Every structure is written in C-alpha cells, then in structure tokens.
C-alpha cells in the first residue's frame, strides 16, 4: 500500500472518475489503454453509490471504492477523517475536515474541479453542490455527455491551467470524464444504441486523450493518480437498463492508483 502520509505535501494528487465505466468493459480494453493501464491492471472494486451524485459525495468524504473481496486486511483507506473513533492504518492520511478536498486545501493544495456530467454543470442549485467543494471549478457545454470530443476539451482546459501554475504549488486536480457515460453510441459508426461495444470504444478514446494530461503532469513533477469509475450501467442484463439500481454491472467498478 502507498503511504499517503508520504504523498500529501510532496506530490500533486489527481482523481479521475471515468463516469459510468463498467468493470468488465475496462478489463476487456486493458491492452488498448496504454495510458491508464500501461503500468498495471484494473482492480475490481465495489462502488459506494449507484449513480454519480451519491458516489461522489462518498469519494470526497474519503470513501473510495472498496476491494471486491472479503479480506478485510486489503480494505485500507487512503484518506480518513480524524476523530471518528474508527481504527485506521498507519499509511492512511488523516484529514481534519469534513472532506478530502478541503483537507488538502488546508495542507496548501490548490483544488481544481473540471466537471463533465450533469451534476457538475452548475446550472442549478443541485448541480453546484459537488463543484462547490473546490476552490476552482470549471464546466463548459463541450465538456458534457453530448459532445463526442468532450475529453479532448476537458484535457485542453486542464493543460491551460497547468501551464499557468507555479511548479512549486501543489495541486489536487479532479476530472470527471463524461465521454463514457451515455450517450456513447456515436463512438461506433452506424449505430444509434449504447452498448458494451460503444462503451469500449469510448474508453479507448478517453485513454488516448488522457495521455496528454499525464505527460504534462510528469513535467510538473511527482503525481499520485487515482483513476476509477463511480458506477457501471446496465445494457439489458436481466432486463435492466441504466444505473441507479442494484445490479452487479452497476456495483462492480474498475480502480487503479499509480504514481506518474
């Protein structure tokens, strides 16, 4: 396990949620995703929420997806709020705040959110809640689910911010990738229906764009990166469609952590 007490303060920290990515899809595309999987494989985990809004509240509270096994020794949290009375691990970073975003801000981090799906649009009071955790939050129409080049636009915006940031300033950068969320059928020519195949194609597109972001982060210095899905989605399995429901294709998510 990575000792987060050695990471916080010395590394930039990046959290990327690959919105709606299924675990089985991620595994099928490992060989085609050199940027996300070039140094390892996806781990199967269980999400704390079946849709974006619920899952991200848990993530920002320090409750990341948990290993999909019964071995409690592997269920070690990277982040944990202080004074809960619960047992923690020596490698867990304890923050004195209600969420990891403000906890990292207290440690001198500049906190940035680049939104994607509807809950990050800031178009109404509900959609302002999650971006409101951050010192800076950004959303544009071309970051959203209806734009086939959304990840390109999100990464371009992140690169502009990185170019203007002092290398000595530690960053917590959060990116909610919208491209994998439906509609994703436009990543497969000639089809008008979302499917496992179109989500696979969307993931390949996303991986290609994230390579530019990872290269820029490497130039800044050491970066601890977490990449995972907030939930999966059903494409007709057992009669289910979509998410915000209790099915294994929704609850099983891919997870990776690595240092750039």
Automatic annotation (TrEMBL):
Domain of life: Bacteria
Sulfatase N-terminal domain boundaries: 100-251
Protein name per its UniProtKB record: Sulfatase-like hydrolase/transferase
């Amino acid at each position: 396990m990575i000792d987060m007490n050695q990471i916080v303060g010395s590394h930039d920290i990046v959290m990327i949620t690959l919105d709606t990515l299924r675990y089985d899809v991620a595994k099928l595309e490992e060989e085609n995703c050199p940027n996300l999987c070039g140094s390892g494989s996806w781990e199967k985990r269980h999400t704390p929420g079946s849709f974006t809004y619920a899952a991200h509240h848990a993530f920002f509270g320090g409750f990341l997806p948990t290993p999909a096994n019964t071995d409690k020794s592997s269920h070690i949290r990277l982040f944990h709020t202080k004074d809960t009375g619960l047992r923690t691990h020596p490698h867990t970073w304890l923050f004195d705040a209600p969420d990891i975003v403000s906890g990292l801000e207290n440690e001198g981090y500049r906190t940035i959110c680049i939104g994607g799906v509807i809950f990050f649009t800031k178009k109404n009071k509900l959609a302002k809640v999650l971006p409101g955790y951050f010192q800076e939050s950004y959303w544009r129409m071309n970051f959203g689910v209806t734009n086939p080049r959304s990840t390109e636009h999100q990464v371009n915006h992140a690169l502009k911010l990185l170019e203007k940031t002092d290398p000595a300033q530690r960053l917590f950068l959060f990116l909610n990738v919208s491209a994998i969320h439906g509609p994703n059928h436009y990543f497969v020519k000639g089809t008008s229906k979302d499917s496992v195949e179109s989500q696979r194609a969307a993931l390949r597109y996303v991986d290609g764009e994230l390579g530019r972001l990872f290269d820029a982060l490497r130039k800044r210095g050491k970066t601890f990166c977490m990449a995972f899905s907030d939930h999966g989605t059903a494409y007709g399995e057992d009669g289910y469609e979509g998410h915000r429901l209790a099915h294994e294709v929704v609850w099983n998510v891919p997870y990776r952590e690595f240092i750039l």
